[in-house]
Amino acid sequence: MVKNVGGADKVIRIIVGVVLIALFVMDNSRWWGLIGIVPIVTALLGWCPAYTLLGIKTCPMGGKTEE
Description:
Radius of gyration: 13 Å
Number of helices: 3
Helix content: 40-55%
Oligomer: single chain
Low-confidence stretches: none
Shape: elongated
Number of strands: 0
Structural class: mainly alpha
């Protein structure tokens, strides 16, 4: 996997993920808040499958390749 999620993008993803999970915890009937796990995981991995499909890359040019 080639990293395609940059630093600022990671911070935004983590914030959005935490907010969505907090909404789930505060109002248990809104199960869709669990979707907040997705942006957190993609931020931690540094790779987003949607970015790969769309050809988007927000990380610096020296992104490492993991295999």
